[in-house]
Amino acid sequence: MFLRFVCTVTLIAFLNSVIGCTSNVKFTMDEVGKQPPKHINSVSLVSGDVVMFDKEGGTIDVEREMIVGVTKVYLKGGRRTGGDPVEIKLSDVKYVNVRKSSPTKTAFFVVGSFVAIGIVAAIIYLSNWELKLFED
Q1: Fold held by 19-27+36-106
Q2: 134: three-class secondary structure by DSSP
């Protein structure tokens, strides 16, 4: 029984990390100046272009007033494009997209998972149906 409990909690933790209780948030450069983000997903330029960064993300170099990073790699027509280092002046940036963790989404996911497990357990218990996921 303890093993099943540990497996269930581990599964919920795994699903939480896979689903990711995060949100993409768009900031203007005025908002970014107050608290620079550490990991920038993409940048919308004044010209209308969008620069997507790789999984490491872009960072703000405050001294040089630039956003630096490596562009996202794409396969286009069987060819690899992107992966190039890029430096963008802050004055050329309209919006910055940042991925932020959402405590509200995380709380709802965890509570919802435990409620769902409780409902399934109650159905199994009330129907006297044996579920043999793990053999002891």
Answers
A1: SH3 type barrels. (2.30.30)
A2: coil
